[in-house]
């Protein structure tokens, strides 16, 4: 099957150019001057399908490097399965997800990875890969880390929060980082001081402060800054490259920025919720409404200016990537578990379908360039997580994961029309300029003007190489 995408502007992390894209089978065959012919023959007449991208952007499919399909959390599980979550991703122009396989204290790492393969295999609409959560660092799990690279899992995540569930103490972190440095694994860190958070949260509940808003008060920015600093120093000590997930506090960004200025190999990711939503407006919504936005790290105060600072950090490269931390829970039967005690609200927001659109708004408002949009959402994720060459670029030989994006489109986000398995949207009523028109994954059209053509099982497991950012 050959497809020619004609008339569009191909956008990469480094520039934009008018070009036609020839797709042959699963890969990109050529990027050609507009209207190119082949030995005098009109190319369009010699392909099976022509996609007209006139007036539109042609970009590499999005890579969401932080999702939690079916994550067990707080006595329930994230409401998107791999099937529903990757279908929603496809609708939104994301053609690869990297989900977190889970090992909790007392479980074995390779059992956790096998369980994740079991959940995902044959069910995904788009390609998928895994990071490994190591939630119990001990001799067994350190030994098991030695097998991850061969499984195509070249990054793993530690938690400084959630004591008793996922948390590693400093001794465990040091041991895991030493091992990771040896193996070339990239250490990802949930950087919040969990024990201190638990003290503050218990005190708030004792004072009758049980509403979702107090989730944000208990998870104070000082505890994100402190943990980020500690993670940076432990990584420095052990020579382990470090990637801090879901950064939301401007003070944590400052820690990353100064570490980078000093030449340390550290990186940071933020998420759309930390760019747009706030402690006051969303977490502080009346009654129990704020539960929709209970996630960790929490939404931060707009009065303190965290949101503007995140945009700035994306421009200055103090932060390198935007992922969603997609971890959806319905209000009914799930978020409701925390009625009367915010500590029991399952943590997470669902956005996998909206990341490309939400980040494009930064182009519309002038916060970032078109090229930076592609870099933050696709090209850097590919390089950071060992997918480069195959994903994140429109170039000959790369997988034909291509999105045709219409800057003239317009939609309003709503739970009534989204495709995620959620009974509400964290983005209800949000107006989006721009529209994902066509989504192609390895040469197959998943979404076009007629709707959805994808299928569970099209998506394949992608074994990843080592991060390009190892030094
Ligand atoms: O609230 C969140 N982020 N839920 C998912 C688990 C995590 O900490 O990433
Ligand atoms: Zn986390
Ligand atoms: Zn997460
Ligand atoms: Zn069609």
UniProtKB/TrEMBL annotation:
Pfam families: Amidohydro_1
Amidohydrolase-related domain span: 57-445
The entry's keywords: Hydrolase, Metal-binding
Modified residues (N6-carboxylysine): 157
Protein name (database record): Dihydropyrimidinase
PTM remark: Carbamylation allows a single lysine to coordinate two divalent metal cations.
Similarity comment: family membership: Belongs to the metallo-dependent hydrolases superfamily. Hydantoinase/dihydropyrimidinase family.
Biological source species: Cellulomonas fimi (strain ATCC 484 / DSM 20113 / JCM 1341 / CCUG 24087 / LMG 16345 / NBRC 15513 / NCIMB 8980 / NCTC 7547 / NRS-133)
Cellular component, GO, one term: cytosol
GO molecular function: hydrolase activity, acting on carbon-nitrogen (but not peptide) bonds, in cyclic amides; metal ion binding
InterPro entries: Amidohydro-rel (IPR006680), Hydantoinase/dihydroPyrase (IPR011778), Metal-dep_hydrolase_composite (IPR011059), Metal_Hydrolase (IPR032466), Metallo-dep_Hydrolases_sf (IPR050378)
Cofactors, names only: Zn(2+)
Top-level taxon of the source organism: Bacteria
């Amino acid at each position: 099957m050959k497809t020619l995408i004609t008339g569009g502007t191909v956008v990469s992390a480094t520039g934009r150019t008018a070009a036609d894209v020839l797709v042959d089978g699963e890969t990109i065959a050529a990027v050609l001057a507009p209207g190119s012919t082949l030995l005098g023959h009109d190319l369009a007449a010699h392909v099976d399908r022509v996609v007209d991208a006139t007036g539109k952007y042609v970009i590499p499919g999005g890579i969401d490097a932080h999702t939690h399909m079916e994550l067990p959390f707080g006595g329930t599980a994230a409401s998107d399965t791999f099937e529903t979550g990757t279908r929603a991703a496809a609708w939104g122009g994301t053609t690869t997800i990297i989900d977190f396989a889970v090992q909790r204290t007392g479980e074995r790492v390779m059992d956790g990875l096998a369980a994740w393969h079991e959940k995902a295999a044959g069910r995904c609409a788009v390609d998928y890969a895994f990071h490994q959560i190591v939630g119990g660092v001990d001799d067994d799990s350190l030994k098991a880390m030695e097998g991850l690279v061969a499984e195509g899992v070249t990054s793993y995540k530690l938690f400084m929060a959630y004591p008793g569930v996922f948390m590693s103490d400093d001794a465990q972190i040091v041991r895991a980082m030493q091992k990771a440095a040896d193996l070339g694994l990239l250490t990802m860190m949930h950087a919040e001081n969990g024990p201190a958070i638990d003290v503050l949260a218990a005190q708030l509940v004792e004072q009758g402060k049980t509403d979702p808003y107090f989730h944000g008060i208990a998870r104070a920015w000082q505890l994100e800054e402190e943990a980020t600093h500690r993670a940076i120093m432990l990584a420095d000590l052990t020579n382990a490259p470090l990637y801090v997930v879901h950064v939301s506090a401007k003070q944590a960004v400052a820690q990353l920025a100064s570490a980078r200025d000093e030449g340390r190999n550290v990186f940071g990711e933020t998420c759309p919720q930390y760019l747009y939503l706030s402690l006051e407006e969303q977490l502080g919504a009346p009654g129990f409404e704020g539960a929709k936005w209970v996630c960790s790290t929490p939404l931060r105060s707009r009065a303190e200016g965290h949101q503007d600072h995140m945009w700035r950090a994306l421009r200055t490269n103090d932060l390198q990537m935007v992922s969603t931390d997609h971890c959806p829970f319905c209000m009914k039967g799930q978020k409701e578990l925390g009625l009367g005690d915010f500590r029991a609200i399952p943590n997470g927001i669902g956005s996998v379908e909206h990341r490309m659109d939400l980040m494009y708004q930064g182009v519309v408002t002038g916060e970032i360039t078109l090229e930076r949009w592609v870099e933050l959402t696709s090209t850097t994720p590919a390089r950071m997580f060992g997918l480069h060459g195959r994903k994140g670029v429109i170039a000959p030989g790369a997988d034909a994961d291509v999105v045709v994006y219409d800057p003239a489109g317009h939609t309003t986000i709503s739970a009534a029309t989204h495709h995620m398995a959620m009974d509400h949207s964290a983005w209800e009523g949000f107006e989006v300029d721009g529209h994902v028109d066509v989504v192609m994954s390895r040469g197959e059209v998943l979404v076009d003007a007629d709707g959805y053509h994808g299928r569970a099982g099209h998506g394949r497991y992608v074994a990843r190489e080592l991060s390009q950012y190892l030094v």
